Amino acid sequence: MASSLFAPLDKQAAGLAFVLAVLAIAGAWGSQLFGGLVPCELCLEQRMAYYWGLPILLVILLTWNRLPLPVWYIAMAAVTAIFAWGTFMGTYHAGVEWGFWPGPTACTGGGIAAISFDALNDLNSAHVVPCDVVQFRLFGISLAGYNALVMAGCVLLLLVSIAAQATRKGGRRA
What we know:
By secondary structure, the chain is mostly helical. Helices cover about 65% and strands about 0% of the residues. The chain has helices at about 1-5, 10-35, 40-60, 70-100, 105-110, 115-120, 145-165, and strands at about 135-140, 140. It has a two-stranded antiparallel sheet with strand order 1-2. The radius of gyration is 20 Å and the shape is elongated. The two termini are about 15 Å apart.
C-alpha cells in the first residue's frame, strides 16, 4: 500500500521542476522584454542551465514510461547536475552583487580590456551592464538570488523524483 502512495511522486516532482523552471526563464525573458531590465554577462550565463536542462527534462517527461530505467537515471542525473550548476551560478552572481567575492572582469570593471579603434567608434552605442549592480530587488533579494533559489528548488524536486523512483519495487514508473 505504501508504494502506491509514492507511485506518481517521481513524475509529479519532475513535472513540477519543469514548470518551475519554465516560469523562471519566462520571468527572466519577461523582465528583459517588457520590464526593461538588461541582463548582464552573468545573467545570460545563468540562463544556460535552463536552455540545456529544460529540453532534456521535457524529453524525459514525454518519454517517461518508454525510457529504459538506466537511461532514465542517467538523464535525470544529467538534468539535476545542470540545474545544480545553475544554482551555483545564481549563488555566485548574488555573491558578486553583495560584494562577497569579485565577479568576472568583463562586467565588474576589475580588469583592463584591450579595445580596437573600430570599437571606440561604437562606444556611444555600447551598453555594458555591470554584474555587481542590482537592477531589481524584491524583499531584499535580487533576481540572481531568486534564480539561485528556483534552481535549488528544481534540484530538490529532481532529487525527490529520483529517490521516489529508487524506492519503488520492480523499477516501474507510473
